[in-house]
């Protein structure tokens, strides 16, 4: 198993988002993520949770953000509310290199903080 966890202050993300909302969204989120987040109530909490989620996945991959791009880790929400991780580019290559199965992610937020944990099994041949 591999895991990654991250926690972030919602106010930090809110400040960055309010300064330049369009630039912030374009830099950190894919078009599909942006579409899902558009019009959400308390958008800053959801942005912070996904931001923490991307960091948690990068830690799981053992790279941290920098070796992989923010939009190479995509976190979408299924119809039932479950978050799902899609990897692209270098993030997908790294997951393949590590022989990882599907990444599971849990996102949560309270008044001041958002937290995320990502886990994945290492697949081995029997």
Automatic annotation (TrEMBL):
GO cellular component, one term: cytoplasm
Keywords in alphabetical order: Cytoplasm, Fatty acid biosynthesis, Fatty acid metabolism, Lipid biosynthesis, Lipid metabolism, Magnesium, Metal-binding, Transferase
Location within or outside the cell: Cytoplasm
Cofactor: Mg(2+)
Group of enzyme by EC: transferase
Keyword DNA damage in annotation: no
Biological process annotations from GO: fatty acid biosynthetic process
Entry-linked SUPFAM superfamilies: 4'-phosphopantetheinyl transferase (SSF56214)
EC number: 2.7.8.7
GO molecular function: holo-[acyl-carrier-protein] synthase activity; magnesium ion binding
Catalysis: reaction(s): apo-[ACP] + CoA = holo-[ACP] + adenosine 3',5'-bisphosphate + H(+)
HAMAP family (alphabetical): AcpS
Family: Belongs to the P-Pant transferase superfamily. AcpS family.
Purpose: Transfers the 4'-phosphopantetheine moiety from coenzyme A to a Ser of acyl-carrier-protein.
Name the UniProt record assigns to this protein: Holo-[acyl-carrier-protein] synthase
């Amino acid at each position: 198993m591999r895991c990654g966890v991250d926690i972030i202050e919602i106010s930090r993300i809110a400040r960055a988002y309010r300064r330049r909302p369009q630039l912030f969204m374009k830099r950190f989120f894919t078009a599909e993520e942006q579409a899902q987040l558009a019009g959400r109530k308390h958008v800053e909490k959801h942005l912070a949770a996904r931001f923490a989620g991307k960091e948690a996945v990068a830690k799981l991959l053992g790279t941290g953000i920098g070796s992989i791009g923010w939009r190479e880790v995509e976190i979408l929400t299924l119809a039932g509310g479950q978050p799902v991780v899609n990897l692209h580019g270098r993030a997908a290559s790294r997951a393949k290199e590590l022989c990882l199965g599907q990444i599971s992610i849990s996102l949560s937020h309270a008044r001041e903080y958002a937290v995320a944990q990502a886990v994945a099994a290492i697949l081995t041949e029997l």
